[in-house]
Amino acid sequence: MQTQELFQFSAWAIIIMMLVFYGGTYLLSLLIKKDKESTSGFMVAGHGVGFGMGAASMTATWIWAASFYAAATSGYKYGLSGPIHYGFWGALMILFIYPFGMRFRQLAPNGHTLGELINARHGSSSQLILAVSNLMGSLISLMVNFTAAGALVSVLSPLSFQTGVIIAAVGVLSYTLTSGFRASVFTDFAQLVALMAIGVVIIPAVLFAMGGPQAMVDGLPNLTAQQQNFFSSEAFLQQGAPYFVAVLAYAIGNQTITQRLFAIDKTKIKATFITATVGYAGIVIGLGMIGLMALTVGIQPLDGDMNNIIPQMVSTYLHPVFIALFFILVIGSLSSTADSDLSALSTIMMADVYGKNIAKDNPNPKKMLIVGRATMIIATALGLIFASLKLDILVMLVFVGALWGAVVFPVIASVFWDRVTNLAFTAAVIVALLFFCIARFELLPIEGGIALMFEIFASVGAAVVIGLMVFGFFGRKLGFIAALITLVLMLIYATGFLRDYEVLLSSLTAYGVSTIVCVALSLMSNERFDFELIKERVGSYDKPQGKAQNSAQAQPKA
């Protein structure tokens, strides 16, 4: 196996590159700055983002720092099918949200967050579950991206980890603070152009510098049988299936995605999401191929850290000019996601916390903007602190992923089925989260009857995942048929087997339990909800006080 030291730039070279990148991005944001920013403009760019900007923003946001390292790691660990399992499923989830996003926009054409819609449907308790999960998720994502910046700077220069974190944090905050989501979308476009241009250059450059496709072919005998198998069961069960389930939850539960649903021109949503699906798949699968290249030529990760695979390959085979382009590539990807996290956090605090729960649907637009910008500053400070401490974020990521998985069915059922109640929504999420923790952290021994029970719940969860996807694209009847077939197959083949894959078991359990509880409690109630009320309860915050909502007095009880 090969190993080597990484190429390093001088401290001044790194500082100049970061200042040029963030300085240029800040100047771009000034081009769209408005003297009097509206709350709608700050949160969702006035609901009028076009096709090009929307597709670029969705793609750039979905590609974050972890996409680089995780895609390459997947290629390195699982061989031929690894990059596909990371890039394809992630891309599919962008497409998956489209049909449900159309329903969100139909019910709340003037909305800003999914929490607002759920508040109008159920009340504040269900809304706050979404708000808390999104606040945690976006803050953790922000921390991950700042951490990635610090790690990259410390690896490729003499500068410290903390210096890289600070420069990235201040740089992202500087341009996002000016115009909020509008700045995020506008700069995403420029960042994606850079991502694609540099990616198109770097990936082939690495391939041909190491000897071209023939070098990979010659190295295939070094791979295990599973790594050589394009349809590897190991890759699917360890990487593909858990990631498929996780990003499904991310697509529904994360405000950075739903914020773009509410921001894009309604007539452009379909084209935007299809384009973003293709763009994400192409870039991320390409990055994963670098990990496969490393595997075939026998590169050993420096210090045993899989995150060093891409820097090692670039450093080993390319000229310093290409290494500089790679540095900008990663900084651009993490910045595009970090600014989306800041915009998401500010929107949640503005709409879900201040607008709905503090101002009670009668907010002061000026105070609302202050809340949004203050949230960005506080979130950046927290992200700096957590990133600088180099905390182990795995447990938090697992917890937030489970929370999002637990809300998927209750959220979707709430916007299509008029019998879902606030109690059903809230109880479903809480009980599902409890069962997830038991399975994921083995709070009870997962064996015997207990293991069988969780496998049954997980089988229901798999049926829900497949059923919802088919339902979204092909309608209710085919969705039920697909769910039933999946359930039967899972009960036959997964029982006695799935218990050995705790990540997949626990994730599917969250889906299954939340669905069972939500359906059972909803059927016990005779309540019916008029979906037309949502349009009345979710409106613009820029109207004069006292007219911010047409029916604040008709809000459902928490």
From TrEMBL:
Compartments it resides in: Cell membrane
Q: Name one GO biological process term.
A: sodium ion transport
Per the record, the major location class is membrane
Task: Name residues in a coiled coil.
Answer: none
User: Which PROSITE patterns does the record match to this protein?
Assistant: NA_SOLUT_SYMP_3 (PS50283)
CDD domains from the xrefs? SLC5sbd_DUR3
Per the UniProt entry, what species is this protein from, by scientific name? Psychrobacter piechaudii
What this protein catalyses is:
L-proline(in) + Na(+)(in) = L-proline(out) + Na(+)(out)
What the record says about family reads: Belongs to the sodium:solute symporter (SSF) (TC 2.A.21) family.
Has keyword Transport? yes
Q: Which gene encodes it?
A: panF
Alphabetically list the UniProt keywords. Cell membrane, Ion transport, Membrane, Sodium, Sodium transport, Symport, Transmembrane, Transmembrane helix, Transport
| Record protein name field | Sodium/pantothenate symporter
What are the TM regions of this chain, as residue ranges? 12-32, 44-64, 84-101, 128-153, 159-177, 189-210, 230-252, 273-297, 317-335, 368-387, 393-416, 423-443, 449-471, 478-498, 504-524
What InterPro entries does its record include?
Na/Glc_symporter_sf, Na/solute_symporter, Sodium:Solute_Symporter
Specify the protein's topology with respect to the membrane. Multi-pass membrane protein
What Gene Ontology cellular-component terms does the record carry? plasma membrane
A matching Pfam family: SSF
Offer an example of a GO molecular function term for this protein. symporter activity
